[in-house]
Every structure is written in structure tokens, then in C-alpha cells.
């Protein structure tokens, strides 16, 4: 297990570097980090990463609702030493922190998932590999070495493809399968719609598919469609075609002649989500893998209680970063009832809206076993590649440690409901 450096040492190193005029490679303030990334990213990339569903009410609530709680520090405790480590799902982790699955990270940086994987591995923080990654899971696993990783699964309309993805995840060292429940179809994402931009139609974010033998076979079996509508030939359509050809494995010329790239995009858009997803699918998954199974997207306590009864191993309390249902309950608001329904029988991980060490404390106090972050590390990736992701992780861990110690604790297990009071 990687031991994180002391927050005090990290803080001191920043101040000492400042003597020589050197500042951190990425802003440490969450809002400043987002603003800096917006300046670096294309309009389409920033809209895809930062945007939410509809008017963005859920995105805003995910962050705002942390302010419904206040931490009550205790002073007369010995906090000279701290240990952030936790044990979850048989893993000894340096802190109760995961990197959530984010798709299409090539929009942020050319090294995409490889940079994220290496940064996560450098801190010993588990990465949940995205189903919509820009690099195949095997490449990212190789870059991570023995570092902990899970795999996020979108349940495809093609059951054989589901089995293949799960088998590949097991083979490349993933130690759990995370089934995302809340994306049976894309939400109404107005930022993307205003730009008429969906990266998948350009062949981006589908590397798990184009590298899969079942998907490749399905592409080869697709008949030619001479009646398919052809887009008007202009700079934009040619640019889209080129992106599609270069995103697909193989040479662009071969992909153009064979039509594989275009077929792959068409097949992906037709099968990647499954509106019929229900409890029977989760039960079938037990026959496909011996790995722990977590459900991502549960927000209702009744579903959380049923998940325990169905033998699910853990839950990720998530609303997809506010990208699916506009006006949905925030994850931190949903957490107490879910924790009450689960009663400690399985671990809970909270994502969506976590931006600080104080947020981590509040989530743990309300019943989470750990938290996961998404957009912040994408912004770090956009600004400084692997180093940017690493700095975001290190900053959050330092912030968590200092808040923990200043509030009177020395380890995550010290945190409980007595640490919080409702805000006035």
C-alpha cells in the first residue's frame, strides 16, 4: 500500500517552492481549477466534461448541499500523527478515495486514461476504469501495474458483449465490477446539444468496444447499407470522418476502404445502452463473474435495501454527476437514508459533487465508507496530464488530512455522525 506524504510536508513544499516563484502546476481551489481547464479545453470538450442535464440543477445541488452540514471540531485531542488508510473489499487503501469512471478522456489530454491510470497508481488510489474509455482496459492495466482498479460496466443490448467485457476486466486485474444503472439512455444535456456534439459519433470513447473480439465480430457481420443517409460533404463532415478513421484500430486508409470505423460507430450507438436493465440482469451477472459487484446510481433507500437482499457487494451513491436527471436529489442528501437502509451491511461509496477534504469528512460522517471524484481529475488532466491528475489527488488527500486532524481526529474511523450538525 502506498503511504501518502504528510499533508504538512506537502503544504510546506508548496510554500518553499513559492520562495523561488514557483506555484502548483494546477490550481488547488476547485472553482479555479475548473476555470483554468475551461480556458485550456475546446468548447466541445469542456461542455462534455462539465455539463449536466437540463438546467444543471442537479450539478449545482451536488455541491451546494454539502453546505447543509457543518463540522463541529473537537480541540483537546492528540492529533500529532494521522493515518488515512482504510480497508475495503479486501484492499488496504491509503485513504477512503477512488477515482470515478470518466469517459472520453482523450477530450482532455492525448494520454487520456493512461495518464489517469499512472497517476492513480502512483498514489495507490483505485481507479474505476470507464466503459467509455479512450484506451482499452488492457493498456491501462499494464500502465498501472499491480495498483488497484475496478471496471465500470454499461449493460449492452448484446449479452455476449457484456460477458466479454466482464471476462476481460477479470483477466486484466480488475477486482470488482461496477454496474452503472442510471444511463439507460442519455440525459438531455443542453451544452452538448447546443454544440450538436457527441464524441461517440466521431469514434471517441469507444476503445473498450473496438478492442473487444465480440464487438469486432459483430462489426464484421454487419451488412453494407447502401441506403444509409450520407452527410453533406464539407469541412466539418470530413473532419468527423477523419476523427472516426483515426480513432479506430488499424490504418485510416484500411478503415475507410473496409468501412469498419463507420460500422463500429453505428453498432456502438445502437447497442451500448439497454433500457430493459433490471434486477434480473444483476442476478445473471453473478453467473458471469466471481468478482464483487457494486451498483452505481442508486439514490432511493428502498432500492439500496433490496440491493443488500439481492447479494450486491456494495453501492456507489451517484447521480452521474448531475448528467442524467435534472432536478434529481443530490448524492449527499440521499446518503443518510441509504445508509439507514443498508445498516452497515455493505460499503457505500459517494460520488458526485466531492471537491474538498471537508466534503470527504461530511460524506464519511453521513455513512459513506469512501468517496470518488470525477471532474476535478479531468480538469487536472487537461491542464498538466499525468502530473495534473496526481496533483489533484495529492491536494485532496492533504486537505482531507488537515481537516481531519484540525477537527480532532487522526483516522477515518474516528468520523461519525456526531461530527456534524445541520446548517442553520
Q: What key phrases describe this protein's structure?
A:
424 residues; alpha/beta; TIM Barrel; 2 domains; eight-stranded parallel β-sheet; two-stranded antiparallel ribbon; 12 strands; 10% strand
Low-confidence region ranges: none
Instruction: Bin the helical content.
Output: 40-55%
Content-based structural category: alpha/beta
Strand order of the largest sheet: 4-11-10-9-8-7-6-5
Q: Count all strands and give the number.
A: 12
Estimate the mean pLDDT confidence: 93
The top level CATH class name of the largest domain: Alpha Beta
CATH architecture name of the largest domain:
Alpha-Beta Barrel
Q: What is the fold named in CATH at topology level of the largest domain?
A: TIM Barrel
From the N-terminal CA to the C-terminal CA, the straight-line distance is 41 Å
Give the radius of gyration.
22 Å
CATH superfamily of the largest domain: Aldolase class I
Shape: globular
Number of helices: 18
- Kindly estimate the percentage of residues that lie in beta strands according to DSSP: 5-15%
Total number of domains: 2
**Largest pleated sheet:** 8 strands, parallel
Amino acid at each position: 500500500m502506498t503511504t501518502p506524504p504528510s499533508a504538512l510536508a506537502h503544504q510546506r513544499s508548496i510554500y518553499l517552492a513559492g520562495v523561488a516563484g514557483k506555484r502548483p502546476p494546477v490550481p488547488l481551489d476547485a472553482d479555479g481549477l475548473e476555470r483554468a481547464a475551461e480556458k485550456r479545453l475546446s468548447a466541445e470538450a469542456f461542455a462534455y466534461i462539465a455539463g449536466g442535464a437540463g438546467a444543471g440543477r442537479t450539478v449545482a445541488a451536488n455541491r451546494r448541499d454539502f453546505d447543509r452540514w457543518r463540522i463541529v471540531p473537537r480541540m483537546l485531542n492528540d492529533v500529532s500523527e494521522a493515518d488515512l488508510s482504510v480497508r475495503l473489499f479486501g484492499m488496504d487503501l491509503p485513504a477512503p478515495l477512488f477515482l470515478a469512471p470518466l469517459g472520453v478522456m482523450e477530450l482532455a489530454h492525448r494520454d487520456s486514461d493512461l495518464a489517469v491510470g499512472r497517476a492513480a497508481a502512483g498514489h495507490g488510489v483505485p481507479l474505476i476504469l470507464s466503459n467509455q474509455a479512450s484506451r482499452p482496459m488492457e493498456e491501462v492495466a499494464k500502465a498501472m501495474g499491480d495498483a488497484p482498479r475496478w471496471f465500470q460496466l454499461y449493460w449492452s443490448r448484446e449479452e455476449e458483449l457484456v460477458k466479454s467485457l466482464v471476462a476481460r476486466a477479470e483477466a486484466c486485474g480488475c477486482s470488482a465490477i461496477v454496474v452503472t444503472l442510471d444511463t439507460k439512455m442519455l440525459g438531455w444535456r443542453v451544452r452538448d446539444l447546443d454544440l450538436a456534439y457527441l464524441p461517440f459519433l466521431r469514434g471517441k470513447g469507444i476503445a473498450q468496444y473496438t478492442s473487444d473480439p465480440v464487438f469486432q465480430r459483430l462489426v464484421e457481420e454487419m451488412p453494407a447499407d447502401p441506403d444509409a443517409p450520407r452527410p453533406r460533404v464539407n469541412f466539418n463532415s470530413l473532419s468527423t470522418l477523419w476523427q472516426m478513421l483515426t480513432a479506430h484500430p488499424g490504418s485510416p486508409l484500411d478503415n475507410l476502404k473496409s468501412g469498419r470505423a463507420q460500422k463500429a460507430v453505428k453498432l456502438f450507438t445502437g447497442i451500448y445502452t439497454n433500457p430493459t436493465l433490471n434486477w434480473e440482469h444483476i442476478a445473471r451477472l453473478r453467473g458471469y463473474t466471481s468478482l464483487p459487484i457494486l451498483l452505481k446510481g442508486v439514490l432511493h433507500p428502498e432500492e439500496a435495501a433490496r440491493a443488500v437482499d439481492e447479494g450486491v457487494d456494495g453501492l456507489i451513491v451517484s447521480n452521474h454527476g448531475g448528467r442524467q436527471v435534472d432536478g434529481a436529489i443530490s448524492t449527499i442528501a440521499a446518503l443518510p437514508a441509504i445508509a439507514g437502509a443498508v445498516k452497515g451491511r455493505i460499503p457505500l461509496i459517494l460520488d458526485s459533487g466531492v471537491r474538498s477534504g471537508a466534503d470527504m469528512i461530511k460524506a464519511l460522517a453521513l455513512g459513506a465508507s469512501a468517496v470518488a471524484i470525477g471532474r476535478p481529475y479531468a480538469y487536472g488532466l487537461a491542464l498538466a496530464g499525468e502530473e495534473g491528475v496526481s496533483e489533484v489527488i495529492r491536494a485532496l488527500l492533504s486537505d482531507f488530512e488537515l481537516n481531519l486532524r484540525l477537527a480532532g481526529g487522526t483516522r477515518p474511523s474516528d468520523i461519525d455522525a456526531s461530527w456534524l450538525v445541520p446548517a442553520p
